[in-house]
Amino acid sequence: MPSGASQTLITIIRRKQLCCYVKQQFLLYTTKYGNAATLDSRQRLLKLATDVEHARAHKLVLSEVAKIMITEHNDDNPSEKSPTTTNLSPLPHKKLVLLFVLFGAVVSNLSSEWDKFKRDYKKQYASVAEENERRQKFIENINRMRFYQEAYPYATFTMAMNHLTDRRIEELVSGSKFHLDARPVLLKTSIEVKNLPESLDWRTKGVITPVIEEGPIGVILGPLVATELVESLHAIHTNNLTEGSIPRVYDCCLVAPDPFECMMKLGGICRKIDYPKILDKCEPNACKPFTTFDEIKRLIEKDENKMLTWIQESTLWVVMNGFGKGFGDYKEGIYDEPTCPQTDGNHAMQVVGYGIEGGKPYWLCKNSWGDNWGEKGYIRMVRGKNMCGIANGVVQVAYKKTNSATRLFVIYPTFLICVLVMMISRIFAVYC
Does the keyword Transmembrane apply (predicted)? Predict the structure, then answer.
């Protein structure tokens, strides 16, 4: 029968599922340091938790392992009670057998999950080395998710395995920075927040294009979200939802000081079918734009109430920090993570609405990681806390407040020319 300390260790391993790390430490101490090696066991264990991304989780478990090992040693050697300098001896054989049986069950379970993951998402890797690397990252992500959910059982969102679980979060967000030096424009509005509807979802209006997956590198994310904003603006004013060409914006505006002004200079955006692939060079005349805009609004105040008034007109571009705990593994619920940084925006999304659930207000955001991620490709971010810096870099494209004829001319110049020709023809018909 295992002692109380051993049983505590078994519980920790079973609950946290950090088997790889704990196993490594036990192998180290029972083989290399078994012969009366004197060292600070707690410091030794903590130094081995070198993965910065998961340091908090690892340090917690490894610290507990250190304390338990000291307890086990002191139980067997009553004369030595030092908590910092201890002669470590190998654990009894029966305890090691029990631990390794548990380790085997845990590793087997993770292997089954890995096999299922590859089947479900049709994963194929170029080499054995790449697969091993992805498998290790998969295990780390699964362990991190389980630890978080155990540590924060009352979190307002859940996490789950998805098609990106074999990747680092840095692969998804660190490359998505998109230069934005738009001239700030603050428009006065007569809309009072108290008079706004409790919720809004532009998806129900038929003005939001389907969620797409940008791929493992986030460099295309800026052009993607910028294009989505213009698509939605066009659809709101014409009742005609058309997918724009993201590759054209990528080719011509990726490194522009202000991507939105670059899009305006190009005459707007082209249809996806007219410019379907990235050419890696800008061809301004490769396609004919089907829509444009003539105003760029940027919120220079971190004011989520003003965001509420703006979104009544059209959708919003936001740049937030994608390194928040659980963001990459988000499954459903309202994402509310107090430790998420509010600086260093590195991930862009399109805000398509807002609402309240269970008394908790949220923003409805369209991501670009495919519909296997989150709530069919969307995430609800808590509203009113500047969560992950969501209010730091808000942009909206619009048409200037001109008369309808001018606005139509911006969108449909050919149509207006035809109307004028018809009117002139009728005049000539009357007088001739």
Answer: yes
Statement to judge: residues 22 and 65 lie in one domain: yes
How far, in whole angstroms, is CA 100 from its chain's centroid?
A: 37
**Pairwise CA distance, residues 24 & 87, whole Å:** 19
Alpha-carbon gap, residue 169 to 326, rounded angstroms: 10
CA distance 65 to 20: 13
Beta bridge partners of 356: 361
For the domain that residue 354 is a member of, what is the CATH number? Answer: 3.90.70.10
In a domain, 405, yes or no: no
- What pTM does this model have? 0.70
Q: What is the pLDDT along the chain (432 residues), one digit of tens a residue?
A: 455 555 555 555 544 444 444 444 444 444 444 433 334 444 444 444 333 334 444 444 444 454 444 454 444 444 444 444 334 344 454 444 444 444 444 454 678 899 999 999 999 999 999 999 999 999 999 999 988 988 898 999 999 999 999 999 888 885 544 545 444 444 444 445 668 999 999 999 999 999 998 754 455 678 889 999 999 999 999 999 999 999 999 999 988 878 899 999 999 999 999 999 999 999 889 999 999 999 999 998 899 999 999 999 999 999 999 999 999 999 999 999 999 999 888 899 999 999 999 999 999 999 999 999 999 999 999 999 999 999 998 999 999 864 333 344 344 444 445 556 566 666 655 555
What is the C-alpha to C-alpha distance for residues 167 and 139, in angstroms, rounded to an integer?
A: 11
CA–CA distance from 304 to each of 28, 29, 31, 379, 394 (Å)? 52, 53, 58, 17, 10
The residue range of the domain holding 250 is 172-398
Cα–Cα distance, 135 to 199 (Å, whole number): 41
* Residue 269 covered by a domain: yes
- Beta-sheet pairing, 378-382 with 330-335: parallel
Exposed, middle or buried, 367 (CB in 10 Å: 0-12/13-18/19+)? Answer: buried
The Cβ of residue 171 has, within 10 Å, a number of other Cβ atoms equal to 16
Residue 414 lies inside a defined structural domain of this protein: no
Whether 379 contacts 318, CB under 8 Å = no
Cross-strand bridge partners of residue 361? 356
Q: In whole angstroms, give the CA distance from residue 384 to residue 361.
A: 7
